[in-house]
Design a protein that fits this description.
70% helix; disordered N terminus
Length: 394
């Protein structure tokens, strides 16, 4: 009882302390900076109009994709496609990731949904038995690297380029880049965890050998038609939950990022219309172009806004892409890099802490974030150079 009470006890701070004044200084400073450039009325109007446009044009589109992707993933799970992929890909996990084959289930779970999906597996003893103690914390890294993968990939493919074509090949290249980034992230994390726990201790102490999943899988009751409808509706419902969950990230984070990314209207003046801003991030991107160009090959310095946004929310990050494509500042290479980095990072700064705490490894949170930062950068670099090589050959 004491342990439960200690765990649930809320953290407290003085009602009025130095934190209050630091926060107010930063908060007021941001709005003064924006208001000075745009005018207070224009700033507020742009903020509200941009949030509204993002909600209508972007969030509802992502929500529709999430519902369709959820329905497909439900069918894949119900009729054994996921189990088949698990059997086929399990032998690759040890040489690539130095993780047991059972971890591929975590990859599939997060790819079809979101980062925290791997936590439901991590709570199952039958799943944990396959892991050494030093391997278990790396589930956070491998799960996050594929979070929202299906939604992000489908979204990128659905964007039309100015010529009317799609970005199928760049999106698939982005997936490959995310795989490379995930390998780097997991391997770095395992280096740290091996030093902490050693490589011998098992996650679950038992003399009994268990086989993950065996040769059976659980299915819905009822006729074939009922199973199909149940899988589609339950999967679609999970897509609705995911689509609703991204609304705060898209509306809040994306609004702020776009105000820091875009410039004034075409006339050069601020009117309070949606998508106006002070162009701060492009200015910073121009300063760093000598680094960003060879690493990621962004067509425009504005492209840096996408991976920066992905640090907090992948849904918000992909919401920036259609307008960039429409404006001609994002092409195939950019889509490949965006896909790789949005998948690999997928809001890890906002999920890593909670995920590591759920795995009871919160003391390793800093190392997990560091490892995944490097992994996400490698994902973007890999996608860029793979795209360049393929473009040269074909």
């Amino acid at each position: 009882m004491e342990r439960v009470a200690e765990k649930t006890k809320a953290k407290t701070k003085p009602a009025v302390g130095i934190e209050v004044f630091i926060f107010l200084a930063i908060f007021v400073g941001i709005f003064l900076y924006l208001g000075k450039a745009m005018g207070a009325v224009n700033m507020l109007n742009t903020m509200m109009n941009t949030g509204y446009q993002l909600l209508i044009d972007t969030v509802l589109y992502i929500l529709a994709i999430a519902v369709l992707a959820g329905a497909i993933s439900g069918l894949f799970t119900e009729f054994g496609v996921v189990a088949l992929i698990n059997k086929i890909l399990s032998p690759l996990m040890k040489p690539l990731y130095a993780l047991p084959g059972a971890s591929i289930i975590g990859v599939l779970a997060t790819y079809l949904s979101d980062n925290p999906a791997i936590l439901t597996l991590a709570k199952q003893t039958e799943f944990k038995r396959y892991f050494k103690k030093y391997q278990f914390p790396a589930l956070t890294n491998i799960g996050t690297a594929f979070g929202m993968g299906l939604v992000i990939t489908t979204f990128m493919i659905g964007i039309k380029n100015p010529a009317g074509g799609t970005f199928i090949i760049p999106a698939l290249i982005g997936n490959l880049g995310a795989v490379i980034g995930s390998i780097v992230s997991v391997r770095i994390m395992l280096f740290f965890t091996a030093k902490t726990f050693g490589k011998e201790e098992s996650c679950v102490q038992s003399d009994i050998e268990h086989q993950m999943g065996g040769n059976e899988r659980e299915i819905r009751s009822g006729s074939l038609g009922n199973r199909i409808l149940g899988a589609i509706l339950d999967g679609g419902k999970s897509g609705v939950d995911m689509g609703l969950a991204i609304i705060p990230g898209v509306v809040v984070i994306c609004t702020l990022v776009m105000m820091l990314t875009n410039g004034p209207s075409a006339s050069g003046e601020y009117t309070g219309a949606a998508y106006e801003g002070i162009a701060l991030l492009p200015a910073l991107g121009d300063k760093l172009r000598f680094i960003l160009e060879p690493l990621f090959g962004f067509t425009s310095s504005k492209g840096v806004a996408v991976p920066i946004t992905a640090l907090g929310a992948a849904g918000a990050a992909i919401g920036l892409v259609p307008k960039m494509v429409q404006d001609g500042i994002a092409v195939g290479n950019d889509i490949a890099v965006f896909t790789a980095m949005c998948m690999c990072w997928s809001g890890y700064l906002s999920t890593h802490v909670a995920m590591m705490d759920s795995l009871k490894c919160k003391e390793l949170t800093g190392k997990a974030i560091f490892s995944h930062t490097i992994g996400g950068l490698c994902a973007g670099v890999s996608a860029h150079w793979i795209y360049q090589i393929i473009a040269t050959i074909f």
